[in-house]
Each structure stands twice: as structure tokens, then as C-alpha cells.
Design a protein that fits this description.
The complex is a heterodimer of chains A (about 120) and B (about 110).
Chain A lengths: L2 E4 L3 E3 L5 E8 L8 E6 L6 E6 L6 E3 L7 E6 L4 E6 L8 E7 L7 E2 L3 E5 L2
Parallel strand pairs in A: 2-11
Antiparallel strand pairs in A: 1-3, 3-8, 4-5, 4-9, 5-6, 7-8, 9-10, 9-11
Chain B lengths: L3 E4 L2 E4 L5 E7 L8 E6 L6 E5 L3 E2 L7 E6 L2 E6 L9 E6 L6 E2 L3 E5 L1
Parallel strand pairs in B: 2-11
Antiparallel strand pairs in B: 1-3, 3-8, 4-5, 4-9, 5-6, 7-8, 9-10, 9-11
Classes of the chains: A mainly beta (about 120), B mainly beta (about 110).
């Protein structure tokens, strides 16, 4: 079965960077885009961007351009999202989500990133 | 980017009643590439509907989606206790993908 397993919770100081991983299993990793979405406490879903694991092409939401980098390692079927220059309002649960809804909607379990001094 | 507006913000209903949730896009969504997600507290979002009207695998048939162009609707025919949650629409027809702000369906 399809699974997306994310890395564990992180606590970071303001100005630091965080890198969240998302390990895929149960399907061909390069067949589907991987999206990243975040959710601040008590708030809605906010789209961050996408990586095509086959081509390594990326597309970032304008809000995050210059501050986010999405990468992948096809040898271990893992996608990564790095966010730099963290601020307090970056505190959120970060999710990876596989594209290709016709084949099912799959999300990781979420990774809580807390920015605190 | 395409901005999605959802209404109402909150819907207070009783189990057994029907619910109609609206999602309006600021521009035409190509190929009616609109999805609906359900989210309960502390859980990841769950895909209900894709392509505006296709139910995802395992989703009960009391959930249905409709609409085209800029106006889309999620209908829950008879609310079950487990349906009280927040519902988000998403457009995936044009990058960047965007979500609506959500509609909370709570128990009256």
C-alpha cells in the first residue's frame, strides 16, 4: 500500500533552516509529483510548492520563492523540503502529499516545526 | 494565482441533515480540476472528491461534488456523526495549486 512517512518534529531558532523528509513506498516514486503543504496552528491549509521526482523540476508558491528548496533522492524514494530564515509564523505542521488524485490521495503524517527562541 | 473562496465559513447542522458547501474560484479552473478534502482535528487531510465530481476510493456515496468553471459544490446528503469536520476545496488546474479557507461543519 502507498505510504508517505515524514521525519520527526523539529524545534528551531528564528533565522535557522529546517529540512523535512518524506519517504515514499508502495508505488513508483518517479511517476507522481510530490507537493508540500503547511498548516499553522488553528489555521487552514497553505500550499508551498511541488517537485517532479522524475525531472527534478520544481514550482514554488510565490510566498516561499527564495526561501524554500524542494529536492529528491530517487535512490531512496525520498523527497525533501528545506525552508530557510525561519520566523515565528513558520511554526506549523508540514505535510507532503502525492499528486495524481485519480490514483488516490495520499498525505504524509505531518511534521511539526516549531520556531522558538 | 487562483484564489478560492468558500462559503459559509461555518455550517451548524444536526446528524441526518444535508449539507451544501460552496467553493468559488477567481478564474476558471481548467478541466474542472477541483478537489475536496475533509480534515478532522489532529489528522491529515483526506481526499473526498477529485475532478470536481469523482469520488475517491472508499468515500461513501453520501458525498458528491458538482460544478464547473468557477463555481463548485460539495454536497453531503445525510450527515453522519463522523462527518463533522472542516472541508477544504483545492484547485489543481493551474500552478500554484491553491486551497480555499475551509468550511467548518459542526454539530448544532
Amino acid at each position: 500500500q502507498v505510504q508517505l512517512v515524514q521525519s520527526g518534529a523539529e524545534v528551531k531558532n528564528p533565522g535557522a533552516s529546517v529540512k523535512v523528509s518524506c519517504k515514499a513506498s508502495g508505488y513508483t516514486f518517479t511517476d507522481f509529483n510530490m507537493h508540500w503543504v503547511r498548516q499553522a496552528p488553528g489555521q487552514g491549509l497553505e500550499y508551498m510548492g511541488v517537485i517532479n521526482p522524475n525531472t527534478d523540476g520544481t514550482n514554488y508558491a510565490q510566498k516561499f520563492q527564495g526561501r524554500v528548496t524542494m529536492t529528491r533522492d530517487t535512490s531512496i524514494r525520498t523527497a525533501y523540503m528545506e525552508l530557510r530564515s525561519l520566523q515565528f509564523d513558520d511554526t506549523a505542521v508540514y505535510y507532503c502529499s502525492r499528486g495524481g488524485y485519480e490514483s488516490g490521495g495520499y498525505w504524509g503524517q505531518g511534521t511539526l516545526v516549531t520556531v522558538s527562541s | 494565482e487562483i484564489v478560492l473562496t468558500q462559503s459559509p465559513g461555518t455550517l451548524s447542522l444536526s446528524p441526518g441533515e444535508g449539507a451544501t458547501l460552496s467553493c468559488r474560484a477567481s478564474q476558471t479552473v481548467s478541466s474542472n480540476n477541483v478537489a475536496w478534502f475533509q480534515q478532522k482535528p489532529g489528522q491529515r487531510p483526506r481526499l473526498l472528491i477529485f475532478g470536481a465530481s469523482s469520488r475517491a476510493s472508499g468515500i461513501p456515496d453520501r458525498f458528491s461534488g458538482s460544478g464547473s468553471g468557477t463555481d463548485f459544490t460539495l454536497t453531503i446528503s445525510r450527515l453522519e456523526p463522523e462527518d463533522f469536520a472542516v472541508y477544504y476545496c483545492q484547485q489543481y488546474g493551474r500552478a500554484p495549486l491553491t486551497f480555499g479557507p475551509g468550511t467548518k461543519v459542526d454539530i448544532k
